[in-house]
Amino acid sequence: MIIIGYKDLPCEKFVKIQNLEDIKNTNPNEIVWFESKEYSTKFALHCKENSIPYAVKIINIKDLVIYSNLCAKYILISEKYLAEQSQKIANEYFFDSKILYIINDEGSIENAAILGIDGVIFNKHLN
After folding, report:
1. Which of 8, 24, 47, 60 is packed most tightly, with the most Cβ within 10 A?
2. For the purposes of burial, counting CB atoms within 10 Å of the CB of 48, is it exposed (0-12), middle (13-18) or buried (19 or more)?
């Protein structure tokens, strides 16, 4: 299980982006991330074409499938039900993208592990 943002565990830095220029200003060892919006597929295509690892926060299953096809490294999900459903779909179709459930406290790590979610990321790590 992947755990991102937990004290004393080394992890990748996530940098939220608002436009393509923001992507150009990130370091190669950072993960750019953005929220799924109407224009976000442009970010994803840019990242895919330039081999830039990225994460995207989704709000529905359609976005899960689309961004998996656009080679997202991580799919970020804040709702437990959606995370659980997304993980089932990711397992069924052998997605390369990893499902990360966004959490606020350590107690949620155990819940995510029991549900079989690929990993968790602390909300504070995304800010």
Report:
1. 47
2. middle
CA angle centred on 125, ends 54 and 21, rounded to 5° = 40
Q: Which own/partner contact pairs does 103-107 have at CB distance under 8 Å and 24+ positions apart?
A: 106/6
Question: CB under 8 Å to 18, separation ≥6 — which residues?
Answer: 34
Residue 6 has pLDDT above 90, yes or no: yes
Identify the residue whose tokens are 């004290």.
7
pLDDT score for 108: 96
Span 39-66, pLDDT tens digits: 899 999 999 999 999 999 999 999 999 9
Tokens 């549900």 sit on residue: 115
**DSSP-derived 3-state class of residue 31:** strand
